[in-house]
Every structure is written in C-alpha cells, then in structure tokens.
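User: I'll paste a sequence; please echo it back and then give the predicted structure.

Assistant: Echoing your sequence first, then the prediction.
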Amino acid sequence: MPKAAPQTLALFDDYSGEIICGVDEAGRGPLAGPVFAAAVILDPARPVSGLRDSKKLSEAARDSLALEIKENALAWAIASCNEQEIDELNILHASMLAMRRAVEALSTLPTLALIDGNRCPVMSIRSEAIVKGDDKVPAISAASILAKTARDAALMVLHETYPQYGFDRHKGYPTALHLDMLRQYGVSPVHRRSYAPVKALLSASAGGRG
C-alpha cells in the first residue's frame, strides 16, 4: 500500500495551482478585549510540524509554533476588531471583518482563502468554509495559532492597564473569577457592552441610579 502523503503536502496537492491562505479567529467568547483573526500562506518547501487547533496546544507550544510560522510562512497577517466594533456590528460580523482585514493585509495575494467554520467573510478572492478546519487544514491551524497568541498577548497588555480584572488569568473569558471582578469593580472601557453578563450589570447599575 502506498504511503500517505504528509498532511501539508496533501493539502497543496488537493488545491493544485492555488495560492492558499488559511484564516481563523480567536476571541468570540470573551467579555472583554478585541476579536483577532489571522491569515497564513504556508510554504510547502518549509513545512511547520505540529500544527493543529490552537485550543489543543499548550501555551508554550503555541508560542513556539507562532514564531516558527512567522519565520517559515510565505506570508502571514494578523488583524482585529475592537470592543466598540463588536458592540456595533455583533460578534459574528466583527469576526468576519477581522478575517477580511487579515487577508487583505497579506503581502502575497492568495487565490483562495480557506476559512475555519461554516461561513465566509465577503472578500475579493474566492473562499471556502471548512468546519473544524483548524484541526484539519495546516494553513488554518497556523492561522488559529497566530490569532490566539496575538489575542493572549493583547490581553496581557490590558491586564497592565486594568489589573483588578485578572485578564492575565482568564483572558477575558466569562470565568467565575472574571464575573466576580466585574461585579466588584464594574464595567471597564474594554468590556463588550452587548454581551449578556456585561449588559446585565450596566442595566442593574442604571436602575440603581434611577
């Protein structure tokens, strides 16, 4: 039986002649901070081993792979949508906009974008949505890693400005600690006001003043 081609090489064989970028986002669920997206065009001559869904990797592994991706990819870009954009557009549309921004920021123009999930942002190039693509397609895995590490780094910066919320520990996700800190210190400028727990606190606060 012939030996199966490595995953990375198989991807390029399946899309012969295409310049493929993988695209993924990080940060839909948190109550605070921007949503990030990344786009990556891998170099088949310089494969990166160990790529997979960023959520299945340790923080140390993500950080190491992020450096390797940036060094070996043909092109990569990271973009975001801030809290105000998320509240104005809703998180789905903000995620789509961040993905489009990442693709448009690439130094090499791809011919096809492979998007993690079940829908694609509106872009000037062809795109294809792949459910659970971050654990199936190496370029999407790479984008997942870059988006996740960029967002985690951004939340560490927010922690320096708002240390009372513990962003260094929960990265903005609605953990028990985060919800306790929200109740104790109130809503900060970087919290997403359209999200239910934050909206409830704002409503309660407004009611208390009324």
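The longest strand covers residues 20-26. Strands lie at 20-26, 35-41, 75-81, 112-116, 126-130.
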